[in-house]
Amino acid sequence: MTNYILALILGSAFGFSLNKVGLTKYHKVVNQFRFTDMSVLKFMMTALCVAMTGLYIFRALGWVTFPTVPATYIVGNLLGGLLFGVGMALTGY
Amino acid sequence: MNRVRTFITQENWSPYAAGIMLGIVGMLTVLLANALLGASGAFESLVGWIGKNISPSLFSNVYWGEIGGRALPIMRPEITWSVVLLVGVVFGGTVGALTSRTFKFRFNDDVQWKRIFGPQPWKRWVIGFFGAILLEYAAGIAGGCTSGLAISGGMLLAPAAFLFIGGMFASGIITALIVYRRRY
User: Fold this and answer.
1) How far is B183 from chain A (nearest CA, A)?
2) A19: pLDDT confidence band, cut at 50, 70 and 90?
């Protein structure tokens, strides 16, 4: 139950940040692929940097054990990414 | 206090500010719940859960973790963590739009879309429908979407995340080139 409440709160914060950066709009997503609006990349990479730094510091301090990361299967990951990009550039989701 | 208020009610935040917020959210997700910010698996779980309640025999197959198969924990046919997360995402997005007073039911009002594909809403719906099927299918192949694989996997330095980001940008750029041609 606590887990579900946590999921609701964290999900809300996630959705809020997505809305504020404009990823709910078609032109923001597609203009990233045209390199006329770099918000998507700035947003993603900032999030990655902040979370990476924090998480690896926490792990070094022994506060956290990492969950299982998504499995690596080179062809599948790449093929999925390639298909995903087509859908993303067409719909802007 | 007033400055905090003006910041929150802005429609477009600096992507760096929103990125820091998402980074903290991702960090807390691992720290407090020991989970990832997966979203695409939620649709599969939800469909599986509904299907199991309507027709258990049809949905008792390998994909949903029956008959010797083992479903990925994020895709179990039940109300999982990511389903609840998805509800939160929709709620948070709505709150975000309400704070900037841009909440509105839209069918097709993106200026750039209209310029490229024409003003008819049905085009947006058809391309959106089939594009979204492609997105969900691709996320199924890769093992996650932008949030669950690229961002959550990336912050744990999973190789899969970087393969996925590379593939996504390569084909995204090519698709945009084809769609926009000389207007690229």
Assistant:
1) 10
2) very high
Q: Round the average pLDDT of chain B to a whole number and report it.
A: 85
pTM score, two decimals? 0.88
CB count, 10 Å around CB of B85? 30
Query: CA nearest B35 in A: which residue?
Result: A67
Of A10, A19, A87, the CB nearest to B138: A87
CB crowding B8-25: b at 16 or more within 10 Å, else e: eeeeebbbbebbbbbbbb
CA dihedral (A56, A57, A62, A64) in degrees, to 10, reads -50
Distance from CA of A68 to the nearest CA of B (A): 9
Q: What ipTM was reported for this prediction?
A: 0.91
Would you call A8 and B84 a contact, using CB atoms and an 8 Å cutoff? yes
The residue ranges of every structural domain in chain B are 1-104, 107-184
Mean pLDDT, residues B130-153 taken together: 88
The per-residue DSSP string of B76-104 comes to: -SS--HHHHHHHHHHHHHHHHHHHTT---
* Burial label, B174 (beta-carbon count in 10 A; 0-12, 13-18, 19+): middle
Contact criterion met (CB below 8 Å) for B146 and A81: no
Rounded-to-integer distance, Cα A34 and Cα A57, Å: 36
Mean pLDDT is lowest, of A67-81, B17-31, B72-86, for B72-86
Tens of pLDDT, residues A66-82: 888 888 888 989 999 99
- CA of A38 vs chain B CAs: smallest distance (Å): 9
At B72 the pLDDT is 54
